[in-house]
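I have been asked to look over a protein record a colleague put together. Alongside the sequence sits a line of tokens, each denoting a local backbone shape. I have pasted the whole thing underneath without changing anything:
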Amino acid sequence: MDTGIGDTGTGASLAWSPGAASQPPPGLGVKLGSLVLLLLLPLACGLAPLWCFRQPPDPRSPVLSLVSCFSGGVFMGTFLLDLLPDYLGSIGAALEGLRVTLQFPLPEFILAMGFFLVLVLEQVTLAQRELAEPPEESRALLPNGSSIQAAAPGPGVPAGSAVPGAPGVLRAGALALALALHAVLEGLALGLREGDAAALRVLLALLLHKGAVAFGLSLELLRSRLRPPAVASCLVLLALMSPLGVGVGTALAAGAGPRQRLCRAVLEGLAAGTFLFVTFLEILPQELGVPRNRIPKVILILAGFALVSAILFVKG
């Protein structure tokens, strides 16, 4: 017959503790709340320009040009201060985790591949358009290659104004996809955070950052003459990406190995290269190439850059 001591020991070893079995992972409450906040706030900020511009705005509008300069400063600050440092740190940590030493500049090469990806797609689209148009019209290409000029601009129309074309839509789509990919990676970073305090700090910074980026993206898509339903679809896609990344990061928090980090860093580098092209070869040259309101444009570019700097300062 078993003794009471044996029964007690067995009972203690097999005892079920409801509190221990249902203990949630660290920071789960903040991450669940972030799913809703990261969906609604960027969507609201992105839809604000659609509310202000009920009809597709005239690309020659001085007000829209000035606001676009502000968004250009936001995008420039996002690339230089956020995307690029995050990418270089991620791929460096991934290669160090795999104990790989390279003499070839792989991080810069991946960044260039993202740049050339958009460049090749744009030039192929332009080449196909030139073949489908009469020679006298194809000779009127703008220097930046984003669209086709009218053969005889009317009075009061600047020489740099243009009729929107497929490459402009392509680059607008590339911008939206690059931001969507980066949003997934940022959400993934939040999902991998442990602890309520760490997750909350990242969440607050992401809310501010994503709101400003969604507002700027909406302006650029409107400026590319996309219809409001198409702009709204891009904004919904962007708004869904960060919660998706949070969910994936939370699920994979326990199994993030060096190979997974390397794959993430490669995707982040391609997104950063795409962002480099669209920001510095599309948004800023398009606005600064028109000889009007030069000083206010520079001031607004600096203001957009300063906004991102302040957000990232709080994030740090």
User: Anything to note?
Assistant: The beta strands are 147-148, 163-164.
